[in-house]
Design goal:
By secondary structure, the protein is of the alpha+beta class. It is 25% helix and 35% strand. The protein has eight helices and 15 strands.
Length: 238
């Protein structure tokens, strides 16, 4: 059996806003000359936080790591709906925000806790007939999307100052938090979109143990090896 190297495993990256998950993969590959690099669970370009980058034979565990539950925190802006359900999209509705308290927001969000059938937004990387939905959306084409079963463990608001509310959410993989923001806005009758999003936990890994991408790219090869979570630990055999 081939021995594992120090670069067979995973890196915990704190992704900055403005980069795609694939941009991060490319930057690591180029900087360190590693052939096999992948990521576990896409973050939208303006989302920040924990991105698990798998290296070498660690890429074989990407599906396993992607299937883990996630925790996010962020903010939702009420009174404005967008076509992408987040701040990157085009404004589709602007409505007055009714008087809302933190307790009322938490009462409304509690209705989303549990099993949900969720349709991916049109502006997403989900493919229909081999074509990513966002490419169809850019052409003004809207197609029927298949709803997927997700589970929301908790969805709590922690602060509210109209029109922005801060929240935290624990959920299964494949959950579109921006869809929840949109649906909550519909439920409250004023529209809403996801303003900011940060992933703090994925499975057993926490963003507190991650390094900003900028810092990772300044590491020497020896320092990088020290940051890699070994393959056997990832696989749960250590």
């Amino acid at each position: 059996m081939q021995e594992f190297t120090a670069l067979d495993g995973a890196l915990l990256i704190d992704k900055p806003a403005g980069l795609t998950s694939h941009d991060v993969v490319d930057a690591i590959r180029r900087q360190f000359g590693i052939k096999k690099v992948g990521h576990c669970g896409t973050l939208d370009p303006n989302a920040t936080g924990l991105l698990i980058i798998v290296l070498g034979r660690g890429t074989k565990l990407s599906e396993k790591l992607m299937s883990d539950d996630k925790v996010y925190e962020g903010t939702i802006k009420f009174g404005e709906a967008t076509d992408s359900y987040d701040a990157d999209g085009e404004l589709t509705a602007s409505l007055p925000v009714p008087p809302l308290t933190l307790a009322e927001l938490n009462e409304a969000s509690a209705g989303f806790v549990g099993d949900l059938m969720q349709k991916p937004p049109m502006v997403s990387a989900v493919k229909k007939g081999g074509v990513p939905l966002y490419k169809l959306a850019r052409k003004g084409v809207e197609v029927e999307r298949e709803a997927r079963l997700i589970h929301i463990y908790s969805f709590r608001f922690t602060a509210y100052e109209e029109p922005l509310a801060a929240f935290s959410i624990a959920c299964t993989k494949g959950t579109y938090v921006r869809s929840l923001a949109h649906d909550l806005g519909e439920k409250l009758g004023c529209g809403a979109h996801l303003a900011t999003l940060r992933r703090t936990v994925s499975g057993k890994f926490d963003v507190a143990n991650a390094l900003p991408l900028e810092a990772v790219l300044k590491l020497t090869s020896a320092q990088l090896e020290q940051r890699v979570v070994p393959f056997l630990k990832l696989a749960g055999t250590q």
